């Protein structure tokens, strides 16, 4: 049926034809409705199964790799991957068959884990050794820091004692010089007045003894001061040695921290590899196209089976080119179906085609040949299993 509407613009004709097509032919995929709110886009389509391939986990390709040289993740591995195309294990404990209903987290099959467990043990030992060495270096640096603090205190005490000794000696030396000067003045007075020779001789001896004692005291003080200065030099040398030792320990620590990060990456990868020996279901669904059995030899990247998801379904709709800018990946959507009209199912925009196409051929009018659209794939939550593939569905993109 071809809609004919007179005295309307070409775009209005197209809209009228789309509505007529929806009513008359109910095609599998519908264009977004026109004349709707600028904030809401409505469209219709048919629910489809989402089939997910289950393959040998990429981590298993790294079995046997030296974990101390391992990349931070399987995705970080570089090089010629064909060199890794060797068997990674043999299927054990296959617990499903075609048609089996599975839940997220179910173990579908296992691969012998002895090698992976041994790799994890080695990776853990490597990590523990590097960590222990770093801890030892840190402890040594802490000890040096304590010793330096002790030397700093000893230096401060020794400098304070030297300052006090110099101050005390200067006072005593000045007092001694003043006493000698006073005796010299007395001696001069005696001589000028013809004093008693015995007294003069006695005063001269006292002056000589006082001067000798003062100089002897100065020599002893200087010797003590030299020892203090030598002590300060030893403390300074000790501090320099501590600084050099601490710098070297810091350098070694930096090197080992890098090794520790590498060992930690290897340890995490070893854990991932061990975890990958049990291949688990990523979602609810039904097993299809099972390609292996107990005893099958597995290779990197080998497809094991497909899982038809039941917790989510896909829905393809078409959005006119003049409205596609309103749609963004991740936008929430509401979906309703005739089988359960009172219930609203939540979902989101999963994919937006990067290229405009002409309206699908199953919507047949000459006018529609002028309309270009983008295909938008919607993912719909179906945790309760109400939705089924093939159901027509209405979509609202908010």
Layout: helices, strands, pairs:
Blueprint: H1 10-25, E1 41-55, E2 89-92, E3 101-102, E4 107-111, H2 114-192, H3 197-276, E5 278-280, E6 285-288, E7 297-298, E8 303-320, E9 332-337, E10 345-352, E11 357-358, E12 372-381, E13 392-397
Antiparallel strand pairs: 1-8, 1-13, 2-4, 2-7, 3-6, 4-5, 6-8, 8-12, 9-10, 9-13, 10-12, 11-12
Helix pairs in contact: 2-3
Radius of gyration: 47 Å
Distance between the termini: 32 Å
The main sheet comes to: 6 strands, antiparallel, barrel
Structure class: alpha+beta
The number of helical segments is 3
Give the overall silhouette.
elongated
CATH fold annotation of the domain at 121-274: Helix Hairpins
Mean pLDDT: 84
Main-sheet strand order equals: 1-8-12-10-9-13
User: What portion of the residues fall into strands of 2 or more residues?
Assistant: 15-25%
CATH architecture label name of the domain at 121-274: Orthogonal Bundle
Class of the domain at 121-274, according to the CATH hierarchy?
Mainly Alpha
Main attributes of the structure:
disordered N terminus; elongated; Helix Hairpins; 3 helices; alpha+beta; six-stranded antiparallel barrel; single chain; 13 strands
Quick structural overview:
This protein is an alpha+beta fold and 398 residues long. It has 3 helices and 13 strands; from the N terminus they run H-E-E-E-E-H-H-E-E-E-E-E-E-E-E-E.
């Amino acid at each position: 049926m071809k809609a004919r509407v007179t005295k309307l613009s070409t775009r209005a004709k197209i809209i009228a034809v789309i509505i007529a097509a929806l009513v008359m032919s109910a095609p599998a995929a519908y264009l977004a409705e026109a004349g709707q709110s600028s904030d809401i886009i409505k469209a219709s389509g048919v629910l489809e199964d989402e089939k997910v391939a289950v393959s040998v986990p990429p981590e298993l390709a790294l079995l046997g790799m030296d974990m101390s040289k391992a990349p931070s993740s399987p995705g970080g591995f570089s090089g010629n991957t064909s060199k890794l195309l060797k068997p990674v294990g043999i299927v054990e404990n296959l617990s499903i068959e075609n048609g089996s209903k599975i839940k997220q987290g179910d173990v579908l099959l296992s691969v012998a884990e002895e090698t992976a467990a041994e790799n994890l043990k080695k990776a853990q030992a490597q990590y523990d050794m590097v960590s222990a060495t770093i801890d030892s270096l840190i402890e040594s640096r802490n000890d040096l820091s304590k010793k330096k603090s002790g030397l700093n205190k000893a230096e401060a005490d020794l400098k304070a004692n030297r300052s006090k000794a110099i101050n005390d000696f200067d006072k005593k030396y000045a007092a001694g010089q003043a006493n000698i000067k006073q005796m010299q003045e007395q001696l001069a007075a005696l001589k000028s007045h013809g004093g008693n020779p015995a007294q003069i001789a006695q005063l001269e001896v006292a002056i000589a003894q006082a001067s000798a004692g003062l100089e002897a005291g100065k020599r002893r003080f200087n010797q003590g001061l030299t020892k203090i200065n030598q002590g300060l030099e030893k403390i300074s040398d000790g501090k320099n040695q501590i600084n050099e030792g601490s710098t070297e320990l810091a350098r070694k620590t930096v090197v080992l921290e890098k090794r520790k990060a590498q060992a930690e990456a290897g340890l995490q990868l070893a854990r991932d590899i061990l975890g990958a020996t049990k291949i688990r279901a990523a979602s609810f669904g039904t097993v299809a196209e099972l390609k292996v059995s107990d005893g099958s030899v597995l290779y990197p990247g080998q497809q094991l089976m497909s899982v038809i998801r039941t917790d989510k379904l896909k829905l393809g709709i078409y959005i006119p080119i003049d409205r596609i800018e309103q749609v963004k990946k991740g936008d929430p959507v509401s979906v309703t179906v005739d089988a359960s009209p009172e219930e609203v199912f939540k979902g989101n925009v999963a994919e937006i085609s990067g290229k405009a196409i002409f309206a699908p051929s199953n919507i047949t009018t000459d006018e529609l040949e002028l309309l270009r659209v983008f295909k938008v794939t919607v993912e719909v939550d179906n945790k309760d299993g109400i939705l089924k593939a093939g159901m027509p569905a209405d979509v609202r993109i908010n």
